[in-house]
Amino acid sequence: MISATPKPARAAGVSTIFGLLAVLLLSAPSAALASTPAAVISPLFVASAAPDDAFDEARRLAFAGEREAARALCREILAAKPSHHDARVLLGRVHAWDRQYDEAREQFLIVLRAKPDFADARVALVDTELWADNPGGALDALVDGLRRQPNSEKFLLRKARAERDLGRLSDAAVTLDQLLRVSPGDADAAKLMESVRQVGMRSKASLTYGFTDIDSFSNPWHQASFALGHRTSRGSVIVRANYANRFREDTAQYEIDAYPRLAKGLYAYVNYGYSSHRFFPKNRVGGELYANLPHGVELSGGFRWLQFESSEVTIYTGTIAKYQGNYWISLRPYITPKSEGTSQSYNLTVRRYFGGPDNYLGVTAGTGSSPGEITSTIDLARFDSRKVALRGQKAFGGLFMFKFSAGYSWEKLAFSRDRRQFNFGVGLERRF
Asked: How far apart are CA 308 and CA 312, in angstroms?
């Protein structure tokens, strides 16, 4: 954090020290800044020597990931020169990168009130609204900019993105046609046009296969599923058929999932499954409510109820998750009341996204005595477990998604038996 005032070693000689420092800085501002750590850059330098050099350093810090230092230096620049619009826009963008959207908007609006035709500030404000999942706000912010610059490539591209996110696909296509007439070779516009086409594909089909090698049983397990999904204006619906071969016995289960949107930032998960085979639950019911909160935080709470031939179990679960830059971090507990006491377990997941929500690599670690996702009666006999898993997915060709998973778990079962499992899975999804 950059201090508002320098802290001298002793009171005597302060004016002399400051005088020498000013002479040195004024004689070689760029060199002084390049060799001075951001945490000790003096406001005397910013005020009297070279705010533009300080801005260059703030940009370097921001793009190097030292965001707090960049914000502090921008504030020093603005304290010395409030009209330094570039520094204020950078300050707002760094806030937006950390999902501090309200703070970012405040900075951009200060600039636009002082200088309405400052395009960088308007572009930054629109980007912030898009990142905040507020495409309507992005369109509102673009109205005055497009009135002033109707053929701005930056404005038109973002207008099309906002229209796509609002589901106004025909409007987005019209906007992109205008942009491509202004700039026929715009690669971003062509890519977005392909994205608009993909968003128009509301259905998908997927096929997955999994293999589980268990050291305490003689035969590996195999599982597969086929699913069809369709997205509507109120949410998505998925129907799924699951197959498993365990102990050389074929079993099947049929499920339906729904993800209804209830309000802005609020949606639900609802599930029902049925099976007539003994290894799957005869009936499976699940429900969970999700809320997207400010600063990239998501909370949820719900349950899973499973009925087997001779028993039933209820699991309470939820999540506390946060988006931080390109990362998503989630903690999910599982709480299972039993006649002999309550068991619990916890899963921690960290995902790293690459170039959009369709591409990520994640690691999950879990521990505890409560089964997380019960798929057979054997899971009910578990007393303790440790697990780690790697999962990822990659979009390609605009229509396909490849998924994979690999994991290891150790479980303590009834009758002092241990079970170690190695899990592998692959999947392919096709959109249409």
From this structure: 6
Residues whose CB is less than 8 angstroms from the CB of residue 56 and which lie 6 or more positions away in sequence, other chains included: 33
Q: What's the half-sphere exposure (Cβ side, CA atoms, 13 Å) at 171?
A: 13
Per-residue pLDDT of the chain (432 residues; tens, 9 = 90+): 333 333 333 333 434 333 433 433 334 444 444 434 444 444 444 544 477 889 999 999 999 999 999 999 999 999 999 999 999 999 999 999 999 999 999 999 999 999 999 999 999 999 999 999 899 999 999 999 999 999 999 999 999 999 988 888 889 999 999 999 999 888 888 888 887 887 778 899 999 999 988 775 567 889 999 999 998 888 999 999 999 998 788 999 999 999 999 998 899 999 999 999 878 899 999 999 999 998 889 999 999 999 988 888 899 999 999 988 889 999 999 998 887 778 889 999 999 998 777 899 999 999 986 655 666 556 665 667 899 999 999 988 778 999 999 999 888 776 667 778 899 999 999 988
Query: How far, CA to CA in Å, does 318 sit from each of 304, 334, 367?
Result: 10, 8, 16
Kind plus residue range of the DSSP H or E element containing 298: strand 297-307
- The DSSP result for 181-228, as a single string, is HH-TT-HHHHHHHHHHHHHT--EEEEEEEEEEEETTSSS-EEEEEEEE
Q: Which residue has the tokens 């002999």?
A: 340
pTM of the model: 0.63
